[in-house]
């Protein structure tokens, strides 16, 4: 019984951090693949969150052929949770590979931000924002679906 009480108490902070429609997202700051800081603000209208390499590949495939600034024109921010990736692999291979992308990737190296937005590991989480408030959320399991959704957003 003591074990379940401890388990419940340890999970309370996780539940408290999860956002729901209508909630205001707490601002945060992450570095992108070029070590440039970005702070979430009220101008962001779309937050794309991925928690695995497979989900990140879906975003990359959806953005293939799009011009530089495509996400920024749609007020979209892309966050990748890379905390499970070994630091040496990230530093020597993954992050340098990301520098070839024509879009910014905010790197959550320590899982400080992505866990606030729970979603299946293999899907792309789309959080629709309005002045910092969550108004809707969607999950995409294919690059085609994500690309179509992004095309619906007017720059």
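Sequence proposed for the structure above (155 residues):
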């Amino acid at each position: 019984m003591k074990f379940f009480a401890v388990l419940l108490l340890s999970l309370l902070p996780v539940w408290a951090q999860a956002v729901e429609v209508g909630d205001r997202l707490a601002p945060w700051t992450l570095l992108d693949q070029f070590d440039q800081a970005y702070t979430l603000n009220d101008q962001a209208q779309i937050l794309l969150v991925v928690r695995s390499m497979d989900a990140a590949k879906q975003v990359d495939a959806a953005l293939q052929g799009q011009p530089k600034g495509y996400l920024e024109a749609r007020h979209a921010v892309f966050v990748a949770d890379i905390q499970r990736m070994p630091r040496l692999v990230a530093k020597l291979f993954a992050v340098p590979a990301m520098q070839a992308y024509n879009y910014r990737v905010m790197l959550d190296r320590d899982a400080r931000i992505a866990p606030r937005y729970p979603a299946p590991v293999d899907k792309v989480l789309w959080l629709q924002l309005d002045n910092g408030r969550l108004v809707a959320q969607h999950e995409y399991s294919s690059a085609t679906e994500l690309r179509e959704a992004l095309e619906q957003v007017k720059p």
